């Protein structure tokens, strides 16, 4: 598999020397690349292993080439890192509208071809990080480091690996409960070498089995303590597991307990946030569980960091994302999240409203996971367990924190489930692609209103919910073939 050969050569580039110093945002100083450090040296010292892990997280913010297999550097703002994958999902729904600039093909659901940069980037990005995770896990196993260090950092590696296999499963396969036997995704648990051959694809059922196994193992050994909110700890891994169980829908008890472990068990304190109306850019907010830190002066993606750089219309940036008027109307006037303005006085329907939820600066941190999301996962789990009273109480805990005039829901059955899903959209819009995620996992269609610039409708279980396998992978891996994209 040619991609893996290239990824393996990039291993040395991520090794970092990091100064462990205090920082106002609880994050390590940015890692500095140091060429020539061998893998055998990395796994001789705990601090160097930690620096390697910091380097992996730093890659989440990298300016990524859309296809490293072609020998050319063609990176673009819409292939800028983890946040780029999330934002591509975000603008596939009905709530947000994208202007004809970057992400316009994702917005039109027209960016899934085997040679397109979205397809190549998403595959390459996730498999490269998986390869780093495998390097970490296997390097620790062969090392002479103490058992406590091995256990902790192996857990980190498993959480990272599980997270990225989950992204690949979401992006390149049908929904889990639509076709568990879909065979499109190769599994790798060993680092690539210069002579590695690509593995054959495994069933989606086997991919999810690895994801669940890795996360459950990681949760046992991960500590809560961490260097900063850009790092995975036990709470974040529990949040990852809760998200996965929303897809598999086969263990609502564990989904609830995992969500509770992530948000701390006290919903009332978990949903408190000071970020609304303040630019949604500060990872020190107690509601944020996991985020990407920006230091404001030494980043490679000043003008790439979605969602802020695309959604903020009051700062010099792309100013490219608008709000569906009908989505805006779902917010009450006393809801702190109703941050919508008609600043252009436009007669073009799709340009009528923008949101000031996100403020773009060079120091804008990007949210990856929040406690409020976990409270809503718990509410959905309680609903599916038949505990509608508890589901409504959890829902109301968030609603009354965002809107002092909120009232306890009287909905039951499907109407209550729909209310929980709407609250997820209202709470998390612009962040991780929640509308697309929920539509895919629940086998629902995406039906756009006429206000959209591209008013496309995507049927439930449509192939538009997943990408083709990159042509470069099919060409390089003898165990993959063209039939996967038919």
Question: What does this 3D model show about the protein?
Answer:
Its main location: membrane. Residues 117-246 form the SusD-like N-terminal domain. It is found in: Cell outer membrane. Keywords: Cell outer membrane, Membrane, Signal. Residues 1-36 have low confidence and may be disordered. The protein has helices spanning 2-9, 11-14, 39-42, 46-59, 82-90, 104-107, 117-142, 147-172, 204-221, 234-248, 252-263, 267-270, 308-311, 325-328, 371-384, 388-402, 413-428, 434-441, 471-476, and strands spanning 16-17, 32-33, 96-98, 183-186, 201-203, 288-292, 321-323, 340-341, 354-355, 366-370, 446-447, 457-458. The protein has a two-stranded antiparallel ribbon. A two-stranded antiparallel ribbon has the order 3-7. It has a single domain (2-8, 13-282, 367-485), classed as Serine Threonine Protein Phosphatase 5, Tetratricopeptide repeat. It is 43% helix and 7% strand.
């Amino acid at each position: 598999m040619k991609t893996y050969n290239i990824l393996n050569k990039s291993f040395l580039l991520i090794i970092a020397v990091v100064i462990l110093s205090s920082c106002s945002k609880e994050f390590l100083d940015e890692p500095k690349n140091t060429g020539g450090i061998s893998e055998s040296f990395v796994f001789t010292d705990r601090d160097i292993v930690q620096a390697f892990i910091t380097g992996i997280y730093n890659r989440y913010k990298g300016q990524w080439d859309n296809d490293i297999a072609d020998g050319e550097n063609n990176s673009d703002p819409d292939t800028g890192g983890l946040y780029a994958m999330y934002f591509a999902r975000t603008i596939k729904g009905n709530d947000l509208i994208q202007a004809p600039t970057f992400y316009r093909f994702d917005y039109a659901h027209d960016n899934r071809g085997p040679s397109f940069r979205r397809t190549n980037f998403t595959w390459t990005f996730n498999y490269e990080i998986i390869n780093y995770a495998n390097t970490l896990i296997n390097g620790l196993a062969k090392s002479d480091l103490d058992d406590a260090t091995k256990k902790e950092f192996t857990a980190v590696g498993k959480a990272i690996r599980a997270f990225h296999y989950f992204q690949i499963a979401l992006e390149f396969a049908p929904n889990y409960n639509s076709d568990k036997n879909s065979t499109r995704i190769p599994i790798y648990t060993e680092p690539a070498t210069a002579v590695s051959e690509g593995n054959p694809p495994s069933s989606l059922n086997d991919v999810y089995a690895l994801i669940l196994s890795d996360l459950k193992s990681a949760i046992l050994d991960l500590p809560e303590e961490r260097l900063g909110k850009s790092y995975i700890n036990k709470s974040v891994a529990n949040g990852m597991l809760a998200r996965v169980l929303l897809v598999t829908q086969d263990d609502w008890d564990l989904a609830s307990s995992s969500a509770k472990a992530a948000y701390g068990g006290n919903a009332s304190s978990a949903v408190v946030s000071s970020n609304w109306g303040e630019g949604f850019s500060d990872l020190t907010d107690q509601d944020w569980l996991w985020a990407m830190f920006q230091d404001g002066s030494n980043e490679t993606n000043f003008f790439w960091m979605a969602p802020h750089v695309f959604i903020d219309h009051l700062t010099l940036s792309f100013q490219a994302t608008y709000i569906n008027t009908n989505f805006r109307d779902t917010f009450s006037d006393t809801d702190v999240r109703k941050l919508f303005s008609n600043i252009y006085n436009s007669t073009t329907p799709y340009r009528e409203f923008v949101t000031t939820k996100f403020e773009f600066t060079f120091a804008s941190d990007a949210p990856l996971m929040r406690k409020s999301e976990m409270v809503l996962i718990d509410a959905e789990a309680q609903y599916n367990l038949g505990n509608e009273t508890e589901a409504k109480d959890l829902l109301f805990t968030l609603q009354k924190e965002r809107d002092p005039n909120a009232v306890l829901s009287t909905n039951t059955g499907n109407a209550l489930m729909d209310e929980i899903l709407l609250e997820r959209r209202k709470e998390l819009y612009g962040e991780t692609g929640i509308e697309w995620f929920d539509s895919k996992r629940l086998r629902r269609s995406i039906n756009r209103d006429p206000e959209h610039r591209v008013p496309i409708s995507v049927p439930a279980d449509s192939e538009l919910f997943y990408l083709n396998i990159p042509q470069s992978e099919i060409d390089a891996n003898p165990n993959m073939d063209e039939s996967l994209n038919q």
